[in-house]
Design a protein that fits this description.
Elements lengths: L1 H21 L4 E2 L20 E3 L2 E5 L2 E5 L1 E4 L7 E3 L2 E4 L4 E4 L2 E3 L22 E4 L2 E5 L13 E2 L14 E2 L11 H7 L8 H11 L6 H4 L7 E2 L16 H4 L1 H119 L2 H7 L25
Parallel strand pairs: 5-14, 7-13, 11-12
Antiparallel strand pairs: 1-8, 2-5, 3-4, 6-9, 7-8, 10-11
Length: about 400
C-alpha cells in the first residue's frame, strides 16, 4: 500500500512539473506575429541540434529570438520547441525542453524538420546524431553521419506562431506527445537562456522595429549576433534597407565616436605618459644635481677638513717651534744667569782680594813683594882637574 502511495505521489509531482513547464512566462491578449522566414546557417560542429527561432515577449512588446544551433545537455536528448497557446482569455508561452523524445509544440510549423508534429531533422544512433541534409544545412565534408529524406514544410516562414484562439493552429497532443509530456525533461541550457536575454536587449529585434523582418533571424551559435554565422530574415535587406542603413550609420557613428574617444584617451594617456617621463627625467636630473651637490659638499668638506688638518698641523709645528724657541730662550737665560753668577763671583773674589791688599801695611806690602836685585855677570870659573868645583871664597 505504501508503495502505491509513493508511486501516486511521484506521478503527481511529475504532473505538477509538466504543468509548471507547460504554462510559464507572461500572459497577454495580443497574438504574436507570424514566424519569420529565413535560411538556416551552417551547423558549427557535429552533435549540435537546431533550435528554431520564435517570438518572445518583453517590456517593449514582442521581440524575435533568432534560431540557433544548440549543444544538448547530454547525448541522446532532443529539443522540443516552445510555443504560444491561447488559454481562453490570454496567450501564454509554453517553454521548450530537452527530452528523449519530441513532445507537443502546439502544431506550429517552425520548419527545418519541425513541421508541427514530431521532428524530421535527424536522430541519435550509437551516441552520434545523424543529420537529414534535406532540412539541415550541414557541411558533409566535415560531418559524415548524414542522410537525406524529403519532408513537407522543410522551411519556416509566414506561418502562424501560436496554438488556439482566433487564427491559431487547432492541433492537439497525440498519445505519443502526451506520453512525452510526462517524461523527464531538462530545461533550456544556460547558453540558450543567455541567447534569449541577449535578443531582448537588441532593439533591432523588436517586432515594432523590424515589422517581422529582423536583421538577425538566425545564428550559428547561441549569443553570436555578429559575423558570418548570422542570417537575416528573407526580404529584410530590401524592406529594411533604410532601417539597416540608419543602423549602420549609427553603428559607424558610434564606432567613430568610440574610436575618437579611444584616440583621445590614448592621446591623454600618451600625454600623461610623456609628463610622467618628463617628471621622471626631472626627478632624475634633480637626483643627479642632488648627488653632484652631495659630492661637491663632500669634496668641499673633505678639502676643508684637509685644510683644517694642515692648519692644525702647521699650528702644531709652530707650537713646537715656539716651544723649542722658548726652550732655547730658557737655556740662554740659564746660561746668562750662570755667566752673571760667575762674573759676580769673580768680581766679588777680586774685590775681596783688593780689599785685603789695601788693608795690609805698606811695609808688609813691600816685604811681600821684594824687588829683584841686579847681578853682574862674571866669567865662568874653570873647573879644577877631577871635575870638582872649587868652593867659593
Amino acid at each position: 500500500m505504501r508503495k502505491i502511495r509513493l508511486l501516486l505521489l511521484a506521478v503527481l509531482i511529475l504532473a505538477m512539473s509538466a504543468a509548471a513547464f507547460a504554462q510559464v512566462g507572461v500572459s497577454i491578449t495580443i497574438a504574436p506575429p507570424e514566424l519569420v522566414a529565413y535560411s538556416q546557417p551552417m551547423c558549427p560542429q557535429s552533435g549540435y541540434l537546431w533550435a528554431p527561432g520564435y517570438w518572445a515577449y518583453g517590456d517593449e512588446g514582442y521581440f524575435w529570438v533568432p534560431g540557433t544551433w544548440a549543444e544538448p545537455p547530454a547525448v541522446g536528448l532532443l529539443w522540443t520547441p516552445g510555443y504560444w497557446g491561447w488559454g481562453g482569455n490570454a496567450f501564454a508561452w509554453n517553454d521548450g525542453y530537452w527530452g528523449p523524445t519530441i513532445g507537443f509544440y502546439g502544431g506550429v510549423n517552425y520548419g527545418f524538420g519541425y513541421g508541427g508534429i514530431g521532428y524530421e531533422g535527424g536522430y541519435w544512433n550509437n551516441g552520434a546524431f545523424n543529420y537529414n541534409t534535406s532540412v539541415n544545412n550541414v557541411d558533409v565534408t566535415n560531418i559524415h553521419n548524414t542522410y537525406e529524406k524529403n519532408v513537407i514544410n522543410e522551411r519556416a516562414g509566414n506561418h502562424v506562431s501560436y496554438n488556439g484562439g482566433t487564427g491559431g493552429t487547432t492541433a492537439r497532443p497525440t498519445a505519443a506527445e502526451e506520453t512525452a509530456a510526462h517524461e523527464r525533461h531538462t530545461p533550456a541550457t544556460a547558453a540558450q537562456t543567455e541567447h534569449q536575454q541577449a535578443a531582448s536587449r537588441n532593439h533591432e529585434l523588436l517586432a515594432s522595429v523590424n515589422h517581422g523582418k529582423p536583421p538577425i533571424a538566425a545564428t550559428s551559435k547561441p549569443g553570436e549576433f555578429a559575423g558570418k554565422g548570422v542570417v537575416a530574415a528573407n526580404g529584410a535587406a530590401a524592406e529594411n534597407k533604410a532601417a539597416e542603413t540608419k543602423a549602420t550609420e549609427n553603428r559607424a557613428a558610434e564606432n567613430k565616436a568610440a574610436e575618437t574617444r579611444s584616440n583621445e584617451n590614448k592621446a591623454a594617456e600618451n600625454k600623461a605618459a610623456a609628463r610622467s617621463r618628463e617628471n621622471k627625467t626631472a626627478e632624475k636630473a634633480s637626483a643627479t644635481r642632488s648627488n653632484e651637490n652631495k659630492a661637491s659638499e663632500k669634496k668641499a668638506a673633505a678639502t676643508r677638513s684637509n685644510e683644517n688638518k694642515s692648519a692644525e698641523k702647521a699650528a702644531a709645528a709652530r707650537s713646537n717651534e715656539n716651544k723649542t724657541a722658548e726652550k732655547a730662550s730658557a737655556t740662554r737665560s740659564n746660561e746668562n744667569k750662570t755667566a752673571e753668577k760667575a762674573a759676580r763671583s769673580n768680581e766679588n773674589k777680586t774685590a775681596h782680594s783688593e780689599s785685603a791688599a789695601h788693608s795690609q801695611p805698606a811695609a808688609a806690602r813691600q816685604q811681600a813683594a821684594p824687588r829683584p836685585e841686579a847681578h853682574h855677570e862674571s866669567a865662568p870659573e874653570k873647573k879644577p882637574p877631577g871635575g870638582k868645583e872649587k868652593p867659593r871664597q
